[in-house]
Design goal:
alpha/beta, 41% helix, globular, Spore Coat Polysaccharide Biosynthesis Protein SpsA, Chain A
């Protein structure tokens, strides 16, 4: 795979967001020796995203290859897979259509990935910019991709970085595919707010033995529109994104314990349920007390909703068990000495979850 960077922008009805994003990419300070391209994946948009993307890019005299492709099947995962397949270079920068990259982002990311071949995925630091003044509770309960992802640059202890601004090693992703990995999550689906695909990918890479890395020098602005700063939007986001827990929790338990046995998984799942139940009870108790911060009650109500949705996900025990077996099988294919108790001969083609 040729060393270079593919900047991948997946968009759904992104005409209003794309211009500034493309402007920041055109301003990248990239050495002539660093091959680079931009691929915009139009994910079944119903606006003029494609025409606008071409029109906007032609404004700049940028020495970066540019193309637009279309993925008719709605879902961020499908769009990213289309982009991964089309990418010409080893490093794929996942630039959301509301991410504004700092001028040295591409060059710095390339140097980090070249220097550390063990990195499967590399995360950066998102700094928020708001279309409208955020409510006070936003700082107390933020769900969006932004802020420092580790105490310092280097491997991330929890094996997770958010997808916005992340850089994926294409050869690592191809190894996952060859081992039978199939993402179970569609991620964002049109205007639906399902999520978790970035976490699923991080965990899969960790199971395959790759590092999940963070570098504090990788700075980008994450633009948050006004409609994403309301309690109604937050509640919808929490409810729809909670569907990912039945996929993410099995990965998390397997990575934490390194134990492929179903009995151990069931034990850890029960412990996880108990932890979140206690956390919810403690929060409810704290809500009964007084608070000098007028924004805290709203933040607490939103956190309570998230905990409630997480606890409800444990109803899908059989699904979680099956997903654990799939993750254990993937792990065993990279480490034959660690075969799961219940070995699946081949990955079934699962139904993706929103």
């Amino acid at each position: 795979m040729q060393a270079g960077i593919t900047i991948l922008i997946c968009t759904y009805n992104g005409a209003a967001r794309l211009p500034v994003t493309l402007q920041h990419i055109a301003r990248q300070v990239i050495p002539l020796s660093l091959p680079c391209e931009v691929i915009v994946v139009d994910n079944a948009s119903q606006d003029n995203s494609i025409e606008l993307a071409w029109r906007e890019w032609r404004k700049y005299d940028a020495a970066i290859s540019f193309k637009v492709i279309r993925e008719e099947q709605a879902g961020l995962t499908y769009a990213r897979e289309k982009g991964f397949a089309a990418a010409a270079y080893e490093y794929i920068l996942l630039c959301d259509d509301d991410n504004w990259l700092s001028e040295a982002y591409v060059h710095t990311a390339f140097e980090v990935m070249q220097r550390h071949p063990s990195i499967g995925i590399l995360g950066g630091y998102g700094e928020f910019e708001f279309e409208a003044t955020p409510p006070g509770w936003f700082n107390l309960f933020n769900l969006y991709a932004g802020g420092r992802q580790a105490a310092e640059s280097g491997p991330v202890p929890g094996h997770l970085v958010y997808g916005a601004g992340a850089v994926l090693r294409k050869s690592a992703y191809k190894r996952l595919q060859e081992a039978g990995f199939v993402s179970l999550l569609t991620d964002r689906l049109g205007y639906q707010l399902s999520s978790g695909g970035d976490h699923e990918l991080c965990y899969a890479l960790a199971l395959a033995g790759y590092d999940v890395w963070y570098d504090d020098r990788l700075r980008f602005t994450h633009f948050i529109t006004a409609n994403r700063l309301t309690p109604v939007y937050y509640r919808t986001y929490i409810k729809e994104s909670s569907r990912c827990f039945s996929v993410i929790e099995p990965y998390k338990i397997l990575i934490k314990t390194g134990n492929n046995s179903l009995p151990q998984f069931r034990k850890e799942l029960l412990k996880s349920f108990g932890y979140h139940a206690r956390k919810m009870a403690l929060l409810m108790g704290n809500m009964a007390g007084s608070s000098n911060n007028k924004d805290r009650p709203m933040a607490q109500r939103l956190e309570l909703l998230m905990l409630r949705q997480r606890l409800l996900s444990y109803r899908y025990f059989k699904t979680m068990e099956k997903n654990f077996q799939l993750a254990a099988t993937l792990k065993s294919r990279f480490n034959p000495m660690s075969s799961p108790t219940t070995q699946l001969e081949a990955f079934e083609q699962p139904v993706r979850q929103g």
